[in-house]
Amino acid sequence: GDIDEVAAAFGATEVRRVFSDGGRFAERRRRYGLHLWYDVRFDESVPVSRAADMFATIDGVEYIEPVYVIKSTDADAVYVPDNVIYTPSVAVTRTEMPFNDPMLSQQWHYNNEGSIRRAVEGADIDLFEAWKTTAGDPAVIVAIMDGGVQWDHPDLAANMWVNEAELNGVPGVDDDGNGYVDDIYGWNTMRESGEIAPNSHGTHVAGTVGAVNNNGIGVCGVAGGTGEGDGVRLMSCQVFDTVESGKGAEAYLYAADNGAVISQNSWVYNNMAVLPQDMSDAFDYFIENAGMDDTDGDGVNDVQTGPMAGGILIFAGGNNDSSAIQQPAADPRTVAVTAMGPDYTKAGYSNYGVMADIYAPGGADGNDTSYPRECQVYSTDFGGGYVYMSGTSMACPHVSGVAALIVSHYGVGHSDFTAEQLKERLLRSYRPVSEYVGAKYDGKLGVGLIDAGLIF
Predict the structure, then answer these.
(1) Average pLDDT, integer, range 215-233
(2) How far is C-alpha 289 from the chain's CA centre?
(3) Could you tell me which of 289, 390, 303, 298 has the C-alpha nearest to residue 348?
(4) N or C terminus of the chain with fewer C-beta within 10 Å?
């Protein structure tokens, strides 16, 4: 009707729905008005503002916005040559390692003994203490909103979320009726396909959350289990490719409808004061519907099917060394993560500010040559290898992993655990760092350094 006429008037080449129907969750999505969003593609010679003014003349149009670009938040990456990938760290470890993964001693961010140059003993998330209680549970699904995760990485494969109906179904058919075809390991919002295009960033972030523990190879994940098939499950929700994208909102609907209760986000919008409305609606959908099911299709949740009622969104705060946390981390609905170096100090790149929620290891700034490479965060890399990276991108999955441990312990097997309870427990599991960070940053990195040893 009117939309088509206006679109045609300035040479639009495509008008299409932003969000898909969602299969058996179609009615639930309609309750949020998600069926009313449309993308309009038009000639680049037409100013966006002019197009917006024309659409504003149509009765019933409530929001008009450009498609904003999502950017990843890694500060940099240092690649390790293949021939040294399995060389154990030369650091002298005093602690008995809880698992047999040969690179665990290089992950100072889990247990820092101060043996790497410039690292300070104790500047870590005290993970070994938490592992005495739980190292994860496969009932907990963490959606990795990022670049694609290498689902067949030897150190990730056993902990990937797998849609069994699609894996064992007919190619080209929506075997499980969820509205998505061949979504075996998750969904690629860029290609609108179940075909995940793995990259280093998404694979690295996923490894910190849930690389397979105690499998005799590589690194450990915060919630990667004990080697008995008991790690959390990683769902790849691809929202950017090599660098950036503008299509990510669908990922939050997909994750909520397919069992994820924790959303791990190492990406930002640049220079935005408030969230785009379509993304805001998608956030509400995830927060309110994750872990819940609409069994009779009337759009109203009537049963909790996941280990937690509702979802939590955990976001990297950004890498501009700015006194303002970037969106979406600055949105009050999210948990905003700032980044620590291996010596308790704020990482040079990390944003800070009053909207920060919690501080976590992101690794030393790779541009600061006074820190050795080993002071960055070590995790899985695309291609089956391992790599050092730093950024609030690397801090964020530490918090998502600890959140997953909390849900594994308090949510699995208990029908009354909520996302609000998780948030409360997460944000009170910290150690004060005021004495290390200096007055400029005091109170602006979040409540303190996340401490997994305090969650139980």
Answers:
(1) 97
(2) 17
(3) 390
(4) N
Quickly tell me which residue has 């990683």 as its tokens: 234
CA dist., res. 344 & res. 451, Å (int) = 13
Write the pLDDT tens digit of every residue in 45-80. 888 888 888 888 899 899 999 888 888 876 555 544
Cβ-Cβ contacts under 8 Å for 93 (sequence gap 6 or more): 105, 113, 115
Q: How far apart are CA 311 and CA 140, in angstroms?
A: 11
Asked if pLDDT for residue 362 goes beyond 60, the answer is: yes
Find, among 85, 89, 106, 95, the residue nearest to 131 by Cα.
Answer: 95
Q: What is the pLDDT of residues 157-178, one digit of tens each?
A: 999 999 999 999 999 999 999 9
| 30-40 residue pLDDT tens | 999 999 999 99
Up-side HSE of residue 45: CA atoms within 13 Å toward CB? 3
Whole-angstrom distance, CA of residue 312 vs CA of residue 286: 8
For 114, the token pair is 């101060």
Q: How far apart are CA 438 and CA 445, in angstroms?
A: 11
Give the list of residues 6+ apart from residue 374 with CB closer than 8 angstroms, or none. 89, 91, 106, 108, 116, 117, 388
- In the numeric block, the tokens 């990195």 are attached to 445
Share of the chain above pLDDT 90, in %: 82
Please count the other Cβ atoms lying within 10 Å of the Cβ belonging to residue 254.
26
Enumerate residues 6+ apart whose C-beta is below 8 A from 350. 317, 318, 319, 321, 338, 339, 340, 362, 392, 395, 445
Contact call for residues 394 and 428 (beta carbons, < 8 A): no
Partners of 340 in the beta sheet? 346, 361
Contact by Cβ (8 Å): 142, 232: yes
What gap in Å lies between CA 378 and CA 367, rounded to an integer?
Answer: 17
Give the residue from 30, 54, 27, 26 showing the smallest Cα distance to 40. 54
Q: Largest alpha-carbon pair distance within the chain?
A: 72
Which strand (E) or helix (H) includes residue 201? helix 200-210
CB 287 within 8 A of CB 313: yes
Query: Which residues lie below 8 Å from residue 388, measured CB to CB, with a gap of 6+?
Result: 77, 78, 80, 363, 373, 374, 376, 377, 378
The predicted pLDDT at position 88 comes to: 40
In this structure, which amino acid lies at residue 74?
D
Does a cis peptide bond (omega within 30 degrees of 0) precede residue 328? Answer: yes
Residue 424, φ and ψ in degrees, nearest 5: -60, -45
Residues 10 and 124: their CA atoms lie apart, in Å, by: 56
